[in-house]
Structure formats: structure tokens, C-alpha cells
Write a structure and sequence with these properties.
The chain is an alpha+beta fold. The protein is 38% helix and 24% strand. The chain has one domain.
């Protein structure tokens, strides 16, 4: 009788092992199928953000003015170190725009790990004079109704409007002796956002200097 029970236990262990192996194989296959599509979605999101931050629209959604790309050379510059997977996942990425070989502006990705909800990533648009032209939130885990308002709070004509400003003088919220209105009830988010904008500007200068020295 004991031998039968031992045999039953062995069969159960073998069955569970087989199920685990099949599940692992299925997950691996699913990851292989979705990995490329997820990467494409992220790429499309970045491309859309680039267009958005280099375009200004009126209240009816009509394009008032736009910085268009007419690039004849590699104008994507990564500033930072690659991670252990060989990717620039947390680096600043500068997408430089040229029109007839003249610098026309840039869309710059920059991140900060210390938003209220953690990781915070912004795409910031700059004109040829390196003033802020627009921005788009790429990644955020901020609280809905509070920190999540960052996608509109700092836009043109909004209360915290930063459009047209130059971060050559570091942008800060008023609580930190700056001149930017923080999101109501979300000072931590506002600080993280402005750190992204300041980082984008500082690294854009590095990118432009590297281009001029080539």
C-alpha cells in the first residue's frame, strides 16, 4: 500500500514538472511574439512625442507653427552610459532637427527616478534658440487627478506654463525660489518634471557642442 502511495506521489511530481515546463515554454514563446510589438509601440510613442513637442497648435487644434526635420545625417545622440544589456535605457536622448543643414531645434528625452510615483520620463522640445517649444510625458506613475496633471499643467497658457522659457537658468517651482507654479498638491511631481526639463536642456548643450566639434 505504501508503495502505491509513493508511486502516486511520484506521478504527481512528474505531472507538475511537465506542466511547469509546458507553461515556461508557452511564456517564452509569448514573450518572443510580443517583444517586437511592444518595442514597436514604444518606438511609435517616441516618434509621436517628437512630432508633438516640435509643433504648436491653436485652441481648435490647428497647427500654428512647426519645426520640421530635413536631416541628412545621424542626429540622434545618446548621452550617458549603457546598462548591462547594452542599452541606453536611462540616458538622455537628443533628436536634433536640421532644415537645409541649419540647426532648427531638438526633441530631447530625459528621465528622473524620483517622481511621487517613481520613474518619470519627459520629451522636451526646443527651438533653434534652445527655448522650450513643447513637451510630452513619455512615462509616469503619478497619482491620477494630481501628479498626472503634469501632461497639461506646464503647457502654453496653463498655470505652470514653461513654453518659451529658457532653462539656461535652472527652472524651479516657487516653493524652491523659482518662478514656476507647481501642480496643486503635487510639488514632488512638479520638481521631478522640472528636473527632467533642466536635464534635457543641459544635455542638449553637450550634444550640440559635440556636433559643432565634428
Amino acid at each position: 500500500m505504501a508503495k502505491k502511495a509513493q508511486s502516486t506521489l511520484l506521478n504527481m511530481l512528474l505531472a507538475l514538472t511537465a506542466i511547469a515546463l509546458v507553461a515556461a515554454a508557452a511564456l517564452a514563446a509569448l514573450n518572443g511574439v510580443t517583444k517586437d510589438s511592444i518595442a514597436q509601440v514604444e518606438k511609435n510613442k517616441v516618434q509621436t512625442a517628437i512630432t508633438d513637442v516640435l509643433r504648436q497648435v491653436d485652441g481648435q487644434g490647428n497647427v500654428v507653427c512647426e519645426i520640421k526635420f530635413d536631416n541628412t545625417k545621424d542626429t540622434v545622440i545618446y548621452i550617458g552610459e549603457k546598462n548591462d544589456k547594452g542599452k541606453y535605457s536611462d540616458s538622455v536622448v537628443c533628436h536634433l532637427a536640421y532644415a537645409q543643414e541649419q540647426y532648427a531645434g531638438a526633441a530631447v528625452e530625459a528621465a528622473d527616478p524620483n517622481g511621487f510615483g517613481g520613474y518619470f520620463k519627459v520629451m522636451v522640445g526646443f527651438d533653434a534658440d534652445n527655448n522650450i517649444y513643447g513637451y510630452s510625458i513619455l512615462k509616469t506613475s503619478e497619482t491620477p487627478g494630481l501628479g498626472a496633471k503634469a501632461d497639461q499643467w506646464f503647457q502654453k497658457s496653463s498655470k505652470g506654463d514653461i513654453i518659451g522659457k529658457s532653462p539656461s537658468t535652472e527652472l524651479k517651482v516657487k516653493k524652491d525660489k523659482g518662478d514656476v507654479d507647481a501642480i496643486t498638491g503635487s510639488t514632488i511631481t512638479s520638481r521631478a518634471f522640472l528636473r527632467c526639463v533642466n536635464k534635457a536642456y543641459a544635455n542638449l548643450q553637450t550634444a550640440l557642442n559635440s556636433q559643432s566639434n565634428q
